[in-house]
Amino acid sequence: MTTESPTQSTDDPVRVESETHLDEIVADHDVVLADFYADWCGPCKMLEPVLEDLAEETAAVIAKIDVDQHQQLAGTYGVRGVPTLALFADGEQVEQHTGALSADRLRGLVEGYTAE
């Protein structure tokens, strides 16, 4: 199991490489917003700058999961459409939303679980 490194930036979205990697990210951070996306998805592309801003502005870690590369992981979380956003707090999944959400709605969602 990896531990959080002081040099690891959470100001940028983290590309998830495997289910184990996602589990480690969720275990190592209080609030994680997992973005299940696809490169060919228009709404996913529109959501990308919003998620980058959230990564910079909030204490949440943004985890990016390419559903084409990680189909089994997407299936594990019941992803049936992209984008799907799964929010984890204190190691547990607390919310899941399919479709692009507004920046304000996402910020409110994340800040509802972060204690800054």
TrEMBL record:
GO molecular function: protein-disulfide reductase activity
A GO cellular-component term linked to this record: cytoplasm
All copies of domain Thioredoxin, residue ranges: 1-115
Record keywords: Disulfide bond, Electron transport, Redox-active center, Transport
S-S bonds: 41-44
Keyword field contains Disulfide bond: yes
Site (Contributes to redox potential value): 35, 42-43
UniProt cross-references to NCBIfam families, sorted A to Z: thioredoxin (TIGR01068)
Highest taxon of the lineage: Archaea
Name of the protein described by the UniProt record: Thioredoxin
PANTHER family to which the protein is assigned, alphabetical: GEO12009P1 (PTHR45663:SF11)
Active-site annotation: 41 (nucleophile), 44 (nucleophile)
